């Protein structure tokens, strides 16, 4: 007799860096997204959905962790041997969409979109490989008035979600100003090698909040080894160049006009830098005209954003409050960001198409609202369960379910193969407010039995002996079959009022 072949059984586990989201969190997140959508719609933005996959060459190479496999994206080849990649953000697909439909779109084109994105990055606490973003972009607007508007809208979104003024700030900088500082510090050049070094510097500055000044100094210099022992190559700047950049990142303040003046000093005679300073002054003027003071929108030269496609103003939405978590007190920091990317559509069209956008990190914002107790938790009663006491009467039970649903009541017919005790246990696990029972005795009497599971659980806690149990009503009533809907409504009304 041959040896019995071992059956392979895959291990039930979620891939590293991904997560499952249960029903309550799904509902709360949907309510949060609905509130953001209301603000975006109020500003005149329209919804758009783009594909999860894009051709890899359409996405470009703008990722924050370009040293990861596949250039930081998840990719595969299709039947035509063309490389497809899961989108790493919602902006690159938007650029492709605008280029593809350019002639038929109104310009400026204003759209919002929410959906998952994927990054092949090293996962960590609160850092997932799949996460949701909620973007709003204006394509075809050359003036920084569009950037100022996004900063105002982002501030309005945070307040609409219940985050009080003083617990957040929109932080704004300008890549042109940063380029001017680079030029003034002698960080200039051309070609792929210089572009890579330039991007390394920006990504180092972008980690200032997480690594602190000393960590950034290491990344601007020879490099830095993290706690796991992984080494990140630095930009190899001189000490003088590092000092100039660090001085620039610390030039922020509560007075936007004063920050602009300091920026002007740090860019020196750089024409590009001075152009960026002029844009910042115009943004300040527009924000002030709209009533957005520095307590809501501040200028901060340490904001650079890690992606390489930004060309002008960049901004981040930062939460400034601390919250108690399982690991102690923490500050949530950035929950969204964006900026101007005037060159992204040009990759497809060959002509410059100015654009700017803002993206909310949904998961991080959700965690912050949860810590603040600001999540809108929708109260949804679980479904009423119609027990299936007789398999020859499934059509009768189906009719009961349909009557309940027609009356606006969540209801389901038990579809398992177990007996009554297990069916009631199933209803308990679902949190069902009640079950509907029609066995032989009920059918002969023209009745149905409604068992109130919530009241039954309460009574069980109150009863102390068997005599009292036998004399109690057990939270169970019988009603004429025609009175099914009314009786169930009475049960639901009782528990809805209690909530």
Automatic annotation (TrEMBL):
Reaction equations catalysed: tRNA(His) + L-histidine + ATP = L-histidyl-tRNA(His) + AMP + diphosphate + H(+)
MF (Gene Ontology): ATP binding; histidine-tRNA ligase activity
Domain of life: Bacteria
Gene that this polypeptide is encoded by: hisS
UniProt keyword Amino-acid biosynthesis present: no
Domain called Aminoacyl-transfer RNA synthetases class-II family profile: residue spans: 32-382
Annotated GO CC locations: cytoplasm
Binding site for L-histidine: 89-91, 119, 133, 137, 305, 309-310
PROSITE patterns to which the protein is assigned, alphabetical: AA_TRNA_LIGASE_II
Localisation per UniProt entry: Cytoplasm
Entry's EC annotation: 6.1.1.21
Family note: Belongs to the class-II aminoacyl-tRNA synthetase family.
Subunit relationships: Homodimer.
Keyword Nucleotide-binding in record: yes
GO biological process, any: histidyl-tRNA aminoacylation
Protein name: Histidine--tRNA ligase
Keywords: Aminoacyl-tRNA synthetase, ATP-binding, Cytoplasm, Ligase, Nucleotide-binding, Protein biosynthesis
């Amino acid at each position: 007799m041959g040896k019995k072949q071992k059956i392979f059984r895959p291990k039930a586990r979620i891939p590293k860096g991904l997560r499952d989201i249960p029903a309550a969190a799904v509902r709360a997140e949907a309510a949060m997204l609905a509130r953001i959508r209301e603000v975006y719609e109020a500003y005149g933005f329209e919804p758009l959905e783009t594909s999860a996959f894009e051709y890899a060459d359409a996405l470009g190479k703008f990722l924050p962790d370009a040293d990861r496999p596949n250039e930081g994206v998840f990719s595969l080849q299709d039947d035509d041997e063309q490389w497809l990649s899961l989108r790493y953000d919602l902006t690159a697909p938007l650029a492709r969409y605008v280029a593809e439909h350019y002639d038929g779109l109104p310009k400026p084109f204003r759209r919002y979109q929410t959906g998952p994105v994927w990054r092949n990055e090293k996962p960590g606490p609160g850092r997932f490989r799949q996460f949701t973003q909620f973007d709003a972009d204006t394509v075809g607007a050359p003036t920084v008035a569009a950037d100022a508007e996004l900063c105002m809208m982002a501030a309005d979104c945070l307040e609409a979600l219940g985050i009080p003024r003083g617990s957040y700030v929109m932080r704004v900088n300008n890549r042109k100003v940063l380029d001017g500082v680079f030029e003034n510090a002698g960080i200039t050049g051309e070609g792929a090698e210089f572009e890579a070094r330039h991007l390394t510097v920006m990504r180092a500055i972008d980690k200032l909040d997480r690594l602190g000044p000393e960590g950034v100094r290491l990344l601007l210099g020879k490099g830095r080894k993290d706690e796991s022992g992984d080494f990140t190559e630095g930009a190899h700047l001189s000490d003088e160049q590092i000092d100039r950049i660090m001085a620039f990142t610390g030039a922020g303040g509560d007075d936007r006009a004063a920050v602009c003046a300091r920026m002007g000093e740090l860019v020196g005679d750089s024409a590009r830098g001075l152009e960026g300073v002029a844009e910042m002054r115009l943004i300040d003027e527009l924000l002030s005209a709209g009533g957005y003071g520095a307590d809501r929108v501040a200028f901060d030269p340490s904001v650079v954003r890690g992606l390489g496609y930004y060309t002008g103003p960049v901004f981040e939405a930062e939460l400034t409050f601390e919250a108690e978590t399982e690991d102690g007190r923490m500050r949530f920091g950035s929950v969204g960001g964006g900026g101007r990317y005037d060159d992204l559509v040009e990759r497809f069209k060959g002509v410059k198409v100015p654009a700017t956008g803002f993206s909310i990190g949904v998961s991080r914002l959700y965690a912050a609202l949860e810590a603040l107790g600001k999540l809108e938790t929708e109260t949804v009663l679980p479904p009423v369960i119609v027990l299936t006491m007789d398999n020859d009467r499934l059509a009768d039970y189906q009719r009961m379910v349909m009557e309940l649903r027609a009356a606006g009541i969540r209801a389901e017919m038990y579809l398992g193969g177990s007996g009554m005790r297990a069916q009631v246990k199933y209803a308990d696990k679902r949190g069902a407010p009640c079950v509907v029972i029609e066995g032989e005795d009920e059918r002969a009497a023209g009745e149905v039995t409604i068992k109130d599971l919530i009241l039954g659980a309460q009574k069980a806690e109150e009863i102390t002996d068997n005599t009292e149990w036998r004399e109690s009503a057990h939270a169970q009533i019988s009603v004429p079959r025609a009175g099914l809907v009314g009786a169930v409504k009475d049960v639901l009304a009782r528990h809805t009022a209690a909530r």
